[in-house]
Amino acid sequence: MQLRYSFRLYPTARQRSELAKAFGCVRVVYNDALRVREAARAAGLPFVTPAELSKQLTAAKRTPERAWLSEVSSVVLQQSLRDLEAAYQKFFNGLKGKNPRHEPPRHKTRKDNRHTIRFVGRRAWKVTPGGKLRLPKIGDVKVKWSRRLPSLPSSVTVIKDSAGRYFASFVVTTDPAEDLKRMPEASTEVGIDLGLTHFAILSDGTKVTSPRFLRRAEKRLKKAHRGLRRKEKGGRNWEKTRAKVARQYARVADSRRNFHHQLSTKLIRENQAIAVENLSVKGLARTRLDKSVHDAGWSTFVTMLEYKAARYGRTFVRIGRFEPTSQVCSQCGVKDGPKPLHVRVWTCGACGAVLDRDINAAVNVAKAAGLAVSACGAQVRPGLVPAQRNEAGTHPKLPHPRGAEQQAGVLAPVAGGSQRGKSGHGSAGVLRP
């Protein structure tokens, strides 16, 4: 499995200047190549191949107008052309129905919130014995190594985010056998119901409180935005304040991502199989709960569960979003209709069980996924239990016994006033609840 490992970079002032120059050159090459293809399409000419774009780039570096392209590494310029080719490939595959629809490639601008350059090949970059990242025409950049790389990466991407932070992103390939050794054996299975008041409710009755990182940071964000509105847009003070606002949002995003990683790793470590509901996050984000839905970050959390389950040999199941998990009793399976959101605890009219709305939904998620787990002392997939004497029916393939009550046309009443003996449901000695 291929994974991405990111580490914080701390370039010097000169290195930041060189990185800014590289970001600008990559952006110009990308836009020039896109402009060439758009012009060819407008003129009705054949599609310009990547080889022709590479030749035009080499020729442009020899002209006085584009001579400054030689001041940066040629590796990042060639990777910019490959990125454009990948964007076109996604767009064409979307039109053919091979993957979800993608917008056609657009021109890049220096005002984008994210800038990247990519170095491919072991000769283009390396890690020095002192632990620094050596990049061509940039120098040795200080790296904050937070963990060891599981394998030797073949490329590194330098990223600058909207908050002005720099990161080195490595794509590495993990060893499946080593991943399985790292994770302990587990035999439990769990269903998860995602919510807002409680971020996750497990089928074993555990409730994980929602941290609400964005809600907790609203006061600081309002103050930062107030200062940004008082500055003249485009000025130096405005840019400084904009960076402060971006850092506040980055702090919220980092805290949320850390919470998702810790919780998903804990669930994968403790359970062999996990089931979640396939929620329509886009639809919920169009309601009055939009800010809370985005603050929860359900999609990111479920994606983490999915790839970690595939990495560590766990079973991950998504159930349909239209499963009535909140309408069905997890004890007897009776569906009694939807309930308002303010109803958090309800009593089943059929079996009389007192059910917590969220825990009951988590148990039903596990049942819909075909998992056998225990929740609050009740079996999700119950076995055979002895039937009451007055509830014993007749197997539908066997002839009815000619008893005295049947000859008289009278059926013995069963619990709850139903007549299950007449319909013949259930087996001769056991019933499934």
Which descriptors apply to this entry?
18% strand, single chain, 13 helices, disordered C terminus, five-stranded mixed β-sheet, elongated, alpha+beta, seven-stranded antiparallel β-sheet, 433 residues, 18 strands
Task: Write up this protein.
- By secondary structure, the chain is of the alpha+beta class.
- The chain is 39% helix and 18% strand.
- The chain has helices at 13-42, 50-60, 74-96, 176-182, 213-216, 218-229, 236-270, 281-284, 290-296, 298-311, 357-368, 404-407, 420-423, and strands spanning 2-10, 115-120, 126-127, 133-135, 139-144, 155-160, 166-173, 189-194, 198-202, 207-209, 273-277, 315-319, 345-347, 354-356, 374-375, 378-379, 385-386, 430-431.
- The strands form five sheets. The chain has a seven-stranded antiparallel beta sheet.
- Helix 2 (50-60) runs antiparallel to helix 3 and helix 7 packs across helix 10.
- The chain is elongated, with a radius of gyration of 30 Å.
- It starts with a strand and ends with a strand.
- Mean pLDDT is 82; it is low at 373-433.
- The residue fraction in helices comes out at 25-40%
Number of strands: 18
- Radius of gyration from the alpha-carbon trace, in angstroms: 30 Å
Number of helices, counting only DSSP H or I runs of 4 residues or more: 13
Please state the average pLDDT score. 82
Distance between the termini: 43 Å
Shape: elongated
Secondary-structure class: alpha+beta
Beta-strand content: 15-25%
